[in-house]
Amino acid sequence: MSWVVAGEGLELMPAQAGPNTLACRVLEILPLGEISLCQLEPVALPGEVLQVYVTAVQRAALEAAQAGKSDVPLQLLPGALHVMPTRLG
Q1: What is the pTM of this model?
Q2: Per the domain annotation, does 89 fall within a domain?
Q3: CA distance readout (Å), 77 to 36, 37, 55, 64, 89
Q4: 3-state secondary structure of 9
């Protein structure tokens, strides 16, 4: 099963961490020009990976967190979550 969240349903590094906020480790940052694809691993869910597209400004903050080995808060808005079944075979 995959979860799909529209960009407006995520807030990376919110000013105030509210409900539904996950502490994440930055696993990988792949620059793609003006945007970057980032892989984040929620600390509470080892082995699970979230892939998010971020702007250059957000990428710089993630790179700093990755270099300092600090966790990054990611807030999910529950109404923006969609469960997508995965086909097998």
Answers
A1: 0.80
A2: no
A3: 22, 20, 19, 25, 32
A4: helix
